[in-house]
Amino acid sequence: MALDKTRIVDDLSSATVIEIADLVKELESKWGVTAAAPVAMAPAAGGGAAAPAAEVKTTFDVILASAPADKKISVIKAVREVKAGLGLAEAKALVEGAPRPVLEGVPKADADAAKKKLEEAGGKVEVK
After folding, report:
1. Which helix (H) or strand (E) holds 84?
2. CA distance 128 to 120
3. Which of 27, 89, 94, 119 is most deeply packed, by most CB within 10 A?
4. What is the C-alpha to C-alpha distance for residues 90 and 94, in angstroms, rounded to an integer?
């Protein structure tokens, strides 16, 4: 008996999510396996400390997602306060060109302070 992969894909494409979930449960039960994604385990270190599981992010980017038209002037002022040395024309271009980064590679505290100031002025901000 040859496995017709195309027919199986077509059959699964026409099935509902519930039907596919039931099929997965039945196959898990019959074969004694699980469809859960494997969890990566840290390798045992020979005599040394184990490597950290995840790298901690220390720098963040503050991105101005948008600024409503009625709040544009206050957002421009806030951008100039947050980003020292920025002229009026540059701040206006940054606000009008949103989404654009306001600050890049700053510590968490500075990113949170900038986000708070820009949101109080009326802008929508993302910290990445």
Report:
1. none
2. 19
3. 94
4. 6
Angle formed by the axes of helices 72-82 and 108-120, nearest 10°: 160
Strands 60-66 and 100-106, sheet pairing: antiparallel
Q: What's the token pair of residue 28? A: 């898990």
- Distance from CA of residue 92 to its chain's centroid? 27
63, containing H or E segment: strand 60-66
CA–CA gap between residue 115 and residue 41 (Å, rounded) = 36
The pTM score is: 0.55
Mean pLDDT along residues 101-109: 89
CA angle (58, 63, 64) in 5-degree steps: 150
Q: What is the pLDDT of residue 70?
A: 92
Specify the pLDDT at position 27: 83
